[in-house]
Amino acid sequence: MRTGIAAIIGGGVIGGGWAARFALMGWDVRVLDPDPEAERKIAEVLANARRSLPGLADAALPPEGGIHYSTDAAVAVSGADWIQESVPERLGLKRDVYRTLQEHSGDAIIASSTSGFKPSELQEGAVRPGQILVAHPFNPVYLLPVVELVGTSANPPETLARADAILKDIGMHPLHLEHEIDAHIADRLMEAVWREALWLVNDGVATTEEIDDVMRLGFGLRWAQMGLFETFRIAGGEQGMRHFLHQFGPALKWPWTKLMDVPDLTEDLIETIAGQSDAQSGMHAIRDLERHRDTNLVALMRALKSQDWGAGAVLNTTDAVLRKRNGMVQRFDQITDLTRPILTLDRTVPLDWTDYNGHMNEAKYLQAFCDATDRFMEIVGCDADYIATGGSYFTAETHIRHLDEIHAGHRVRVETICMNGQGRKMHLVHQLWEGDRLCATGEHFLVHVSLDTRRPSDPSATIARQIAAIEEGHRNLPRPEGLGRYVGQPR
Amino acid sequence: MRTGIAAIIGGGVIGGGWAARFALMGWDVRVLDPDPEAERKIAEVLANARRSLPGLADAALPPEGGIHYSTDAAVAVSGADWIQESVPERLGLKRDVYRTLQEHSGDAIIASSTSGFKPSELQEGAVRPGQILVAHPFNPVYLLPVVELVGTSANPPETLARADAILKDIGMHPLHLEHEIDAHIADRLMEAVWREALWLVNDGVATTEEIDDVMRLGFGLRWAQMGLFETFRIAGGEQGMRHFLHQFGPALKWPWTKLMDVPDLTEDLIETIAGQSDAQSGMHAIRDLERHRDTNLVALMRALKSQDWGAGAVLNTTDAVLRKRNGMVQRFDQITDLTRPILTLDRTVPLDWTDYNGHMNEAKYLQAFCDATDRFMEIVGCDADYIATGGSYFTAETHIRHLDEIHAGHRVRVETICMNGQGRKMHLVHQLWEGDRLCATGEHFLVHVSLDTRRPSDPSATIARQIAAIEEGHRNLPRPEGLGRYVGQPR
Q: Which of A10, B91, B192, B389 could form a disulfide with A87 if both were Cys (CB 3.0 to 4.6 A apart)?
């Protein structure tokens, strides 16, 4: 993984995204843009990138490179290893820009972010056409890994190989197109959807929100992990892609879209597609692909749950209904017997909670206990509304005994005992059960804090009273096993 | 949330998916299918659904309903609240099926899974047309929430409202289309992509894998959370959707796709789209939308990392390069000073590790320590290859002191001391630092196990020797603060 100097020509959203990715991956960046607002605009993109990209990695990124702004092409490109052009989509303008760049640039790669032009069009009339190619990224450039890399026969293979290596160095996945074509691949697919969507809105059939919902709550979640062909391969079932094409091919002739020029599904084309699909996905049996798809969907949708967004928001709505239906206590006044431990979690272990040991990962034990603590806090009155007023509990200390294994699909529950709820303190013991099997205990010490000062503070009178009542009710419960234990203490 | 009786007419992948969703949400299911293989096929779909759906919820699902197979329509539909027809896409066949169903069905909703036919076509010639509507789902039906709900003026509003409520009861998101149209909404959009993709393969421009990659590593990740219009709204920037349409509208006229019948972007159409987009997304400022998009992308891609799939696999490759570049010790023989704590984690806290208190969630402290333990295991020789031979370490006990807050974007590191590595034991102390701020300590007791017997077993001689050497080297380090502490122990 090398770093170097990247010159960013044109500092809009795309140029800014490139600048951010290069800089955060340790490259020195020089921005060339006559717009006096360029620095402000790129700073905004950079702020978004600094917020999101570094934590995406499970390893530290290199020290951030510097960003320098210039209106002088010679200063911007001199000594650059990579020059990324993202000026407006006008061919004449781009060619003028290349002329200037090539006066100052040495043998740097000159890559265009163009979404529409072919590299041969960009190279035409250039002093050194072999230096120019297309590297078409996707917004936000600092997060999405794919980039369409397109050259022509004028580009030496070494140049394309060098471009490929540099893009990988900044964490991208170059998709090397063998043949140039207007708009490359992705924008053609997007345009197809865009046009059909415009018809649907134009004809009053659907609103923009309905179209977005059908994508993000439906097929978009499949495309985000498998794309189009691998998804359809599954639809073909055990008989595979050839079967799918024979079965669903005729639908192409139906008058469904306004877009009616369709290739003939000849036996040759069927063989081509089926063969490519075999090469791409044939290492997975269909049943395995189905399970990968489902595990991915669970992981994706649960990720969106934590953001309460899209499919995740739909699932959260259902969860709230399920909790009510299950008769779980949600508020203090629903507790019927204060002398019993409180049921604070009742769920099935999801597929994305397991690890390489084939069981629930240790960190998810604390996730379960953390969810149980959240529920207990809600019950005593420390719910989202209360937290919005500026009070909450922070966990100070945790002790977990992992007593037995748990697997995905196991239904588990947590029963909670309050050992102490005096003043600012909350001392809880969670027991994690699968059926009559005690799988873990969690002992947790929390402190009520002010979210303004981040210092300990008194809870509301209601919370204090309700916790005290539960502590009082739990006083005569048998002392929970493992209480007050330290790590490694003999049993 | 009610449960009831669902009759599933036709038991293929779609019918099976419906059967699985209804049964897992507590409904009694009756399957009507003349295919002698129906029970086996549905059992396979059910197995996939039982594996994935229950854990998707953060609450327990109702007790699973029964599934009964029949070849007698009267038995299958008598007393049913919902009848889902998923027979092959032949209009005559479907109409024949409805005739039979209506002889036995009472006022149950009869919903068709058809992807192509309009409800008016299905209703034609029926005894009670108002009973029949379209509920078009997406495979896998048991996971994906969206369903296109389409009726006609023949359906009483009460029927559509009842259908809507029942679909929500089984965790779905009904998208109620106001106007019927061939293929509804989603399949028209999918067909548009499918046709364009066929051209690209047919013309030798791209392979199936390249097309899938450009989707799943690029725009598919945007569509999975925001769909098409909300994504483009962001592209319009602060000037919004009208600006986007004026700016990018002309591209529609370019000869990019084989699919050239395009609606005119009249001022009327621009107003319609921009107005709908305002109603859909206007509550979020563009900067907020960008941050939601980025947080969602981080959460989605990190979810795929844990599966080492798609965009997640690309990120994992980059992580491995970064770790090497950062000079982190990866193998025992790279340790230069055995008397120093070992750096086992060095990363930036990602956006999806924070919670409602505006800081890193308590469970992620254990995630960080768990990741650090994984790294320590690798260093002493318990890596993926070793685990594949059937040995590993299980955590038995954990003690965490949460000493200070950590926020998204903080760069944190874990330094690890081995207290004991004798025999089957591994006793580690992790210290989590942000700069010179000690934010947490973790004390962990692990046991080497056989993954076959799931019982304690001896580690390999190499692992034993390497752990012992680190323990020996760490013997003279100052006793880590917090060691042997129990929860609530006075400082």
A: A10
CATH class of B327-474: alpha beta
- Using an 8 Å Cβ cutoff, are B160 and A160 in contact? no
Interface A–B counts its CB contacts (< 8 A) at: 621
The H-assigned helical ranges of B87-126 are: 91-104, 119-123
pLDDT (tens digit, 9 = 90+) per residue, A211-245? 999 999 999 999 999 999 998 888 877 777 787 78
* A303 vs B contacts (CB less than 8 Å): 296, 299-300, 302-303, 352
Topology (CATH) of A5-177 = Rossmann fold (3.40.50)
- Locate the domains of chain A by residue range: 5-177, 187-292, 326-474
CA distance A112 to B216: 22
Q: Which CATH superfamily includes the segment(s) A326-474?
A: Hotdog Thioesterase (3.10.129.10)
Residues of chain A contacting residue B15, judged by C-beta atoms under 8 Å apart: none
| Verdict on whether the full-model pTM lies above 0.90 | yes
- Residue to test with chain A: of B181, B216, B265, B330, most A Cβ within 10 A: B216
Q: Has the ipTM of the complex gone over 0.85?
A: yes
**How confident is the model at residue A251, as a pLDDT?**
60
Helical residues (DSSP H) of A339-460, grouped into ranges: 362-380, 384-388
Report the mean per-residue pLDDT for chain B.
Answer: 92
Mutate to test the interface with A, among B24, B184, B219 (most CBs of A within 10 A): B219
Could you say which of A291, A387, A402 has the minimum Cβ distance to residue B395?
Answer: A402
Disruptive mutation site among A179, A189, A284, A377 for chain B (greatest number of B CBs within 10 Å):
A189
Give percent above pLDDT 90 in chain B. Answer: 75
Order the strands of the B132-136 sheet from edge to edge: B67-70, B28-32, B5-9, B82-85, B109-112, B132-136, B146-150, B173-177
CATH topology of domain A187-292: N-(1-d-carboxylethyl)-l-norvaline Dehydrogenase; domain 2 (1.10.1040)
Same fold: A5-177 with A326-474: no
> Residue holding tokens 């009869």?
B110
CB spacing of A59 vs B394 below 8 angstroms: no
Whether B122 shows a pLDDT value over 90: the answer reads yes
CA B78 from chain centre, in angstroms, equals: 37
